[in-house]
Specification:
Structural class of chain A: alpha/beta
Radius of gyration of chain A: 26 Å
Strand order of the largest sheet of chain A: 6-5-7-8-9-10
Shape of chain A: elongated
Oligomer: homodimer
CATH class of the largest domain in chain A: Alpha Beta
Number of domains of chain A: 3
CATH topology of the largest domain in chain A: Rossmann fold
Number of strands of chain A: 10
Largest interface: A-B, 78 and 79 residues
DNA sequence: CACCGCGATGTTACCGGCAACATCATGCTC
DNA sequence: GAGCATGATGTTGCCGGTAACATCGCGGTG
């Protein structure tokens, strides 16, 4: 279970390399920086020395002089949630590809003091930039009121789409059209927390789609993304359920909705339909398997890193690709039929 | 969605502080290091200057001289899995409490070359230590064959418990005793991948418990922790199911098992019982809610950091606390009854 | 053949801390 | 009251890089 590791000899520096190669350390630096004007034989000697000594630049020392590091502090939170988690994973990959390392700082959303403290800690390090992956207003707020000395990219919302780039038929619209196609007219939305940008966006999408498709919204209930909140939304509904379709803001919530519906004697999808958002791996194995909207969080994380890197390099940021989503139809939705 | 941030003035250094306070920079350092022999009035002046300038030590420069940094590279993988994810979260918190930052490096378990590359990248940075949270043999292997120049702590297995510290009644034993109490005799284990230490441990626990409780194991099927693998294990069972209880290696697998059982016409828990491990938040909202074994991954992550920190500081590592687990009984298990 | 220009390489200073050593002003001893 | 130990603070060099500037040697030119 435990492996100790004897500390071996100190790592080689450019001075070691220079000595072995019989040149000055500046020549070593030049080679490392890709300077062209080095004579081939000199170049070879230095390259050989680097190889022999297993030289690795000390990135710490480098960033001390250049004032630029290759670390990106990533502020995130709720990484047990699928969205933030996958976004982070995507960001991690994109950063690594660019030779950057992510310092992941997980914030406690509900503790503003802790958020400050974490941001403070991060700013002591020599950072190339700060990537704030904020999904909630509190965090967004904390970030916006902080002055960083380095480039910052604040990505808010787990699925915020600029209105103009949301083709009808994308996002929740696809879900509601699917339900409308099945004959549903009365729908309920079990939303996420109101302080999550993503939750508000989904509500907007939901309401826009309802209006456009001529459906009737029988309620928007705020949950907290959890299965529990989905369960309670349905279980505590005071009277008979007014809708035949329940649009949950994410898959976990949908899971809770299904359980509560079962307990109230409704069969899914025979009596009512339920949909989720995210397409978590488990969604295909719910009972019944869940109709849901697949989002590409990983790409979002990668995009965010690209934006930040552009900012760090002082170049024009690449255009944000449109968010793609895909309706996955499974067995939790079915044609509406007269209530018994 | 996007917030630019103008680069403001450069951060203050000890020299700035010294100038403002009218002392030498060494005095500033002394204050920072908690040196006692500074005259109160001098101390006050320096402290005041630090406050006014908003001075923050440049940790990069510090570690360049001390040769010690406050970064820990954390090698992990599959962070979408609940176990690794929560372990990481716990490690993160423990590290932050100790003033360390984690560089999280997510490895692709199935790509040895990428593992090497990632480890290589990490070793360019000035690290205080390496925390390898490895759950699979491939990663363990890659780590073990790498020479780090810094302290390493390799934590293998998501729930490996030294045999002597596993009181009977803990771990899967509790699950199987629960099933035995309900009258079950024939059980099947849907295990994790064979190259995960944690999966092998659970198999051992399962087999030991079966033997001790006088049950009969009707099979151990290797899955891959996913709901899909649980589903397929049951769906593809060639003949009539030989058992009345199915012990899944984790909750996701159990979810798939339940769906497959439903589809084969078995009702849970009326006809057969199903159990999981982990107690993911959703488990309480499966249909039916899942009887499972709750593990404290967060604590495991924290413990791992403690072990590494002890190593970094060159002191004796604190004893590893025993792993706690707790049986959570819900509605996926019930008394055995004669098959119809 | 002395001079100039330029390419190749060496020298030096600096980034922001830390620590060893130097210095200076006390107060105490004898 | 001189000598000295001691406490408080200043000076210097170094960590491992980078970059500006200096130098050196060579070939071409008038």
């Amino acid at each position: 279970m435990i492996e100790a590791q004897p500390s071996v000899e100190r790592p080689a520096t450019i001075y070691d390399v220079a000595r072995v190669a019989g040149v000055s350390h500046a020549t070593v630096t030049r080679l490392l920086k890709g300077y062209a004007g080095i004579r081939p034989d000199t170049r070879d000697r230095v390259a050989k020395a680097i190889r022999e000594l297993g030289y690795r630049p000390n990135l710490n020392a480098r960033s001390l002089t250049t004032g630029r590091s290759h670390r990106i502090a990533t502020l995130t939170h709720e990484i047990t949630q699928v969205g933030p988690n996958k976004i982070l994973e995507g960001a991690n990959m994109a950063a690594r590809d660019a030779g950057y390392l992510l310092d992941v700082i997980t914030l406690d959303v509900h503790d503003p003091a802790a958020i400050r403290e974490s941001i403070d800690l991060a700013s002591q390090f020599d950072l190339a930039g700060v990537l704030a992956l904020s999904s909630t207003d509190e965090v967004t707020n904390a970030v916006e009121t902080t002055t960083f000395r380095v480039p910052l990219y604040l990505a808010t919302g787990t699925d915020k789409t600029p209105p103009d780039s949301t083709p009808a038929g994308n996002g929740l619209f696809a879900v509601l059209r699917h339900l409308a196609d099945l004959g549903h007219r009365d729908v309920v939305h079990i939303a996420g927390p109101h302080d999550w940008v993503g939750a508000r966006n989904r509500i907007r999408e939901y309401e826009a789609a309802v209006a456009e498709l001529g459906l009737r919204s029988r309620g928007v209930i705020h949950g907290d993304w959890s299965a529990r909140s989905g369960y309670e939304a349905i279980a505590s509904w005071p009277e008979e359920l007014p809708a035949t379709a329940f649009v949950a803001a994410n898959d976990q919530t949908a899971l809770g909705v299904i359980l509560a519906l079962n307990e109230r004697g409704y069969r899914v999808p025979d009596d009512v339909s339920v949909t989720g958002v995210d397409d978590i791996p488990e969604a295909a194995y719910f009972s019944p398997p869940l109709t849901t909207l697949r989002l590409d969080f990983t790409a979002q994380g990668g995009d965010a890193v690209q934006q930040l890197l552009a900012r760090i390099d002082g170049v024009a940021p690449p255009p944000l690709p449109p968010r793609r989503s895909e309706l996955i139809v499974r067995r939790s939705t079915g044609p509406v039929r007269p209530r018994v």
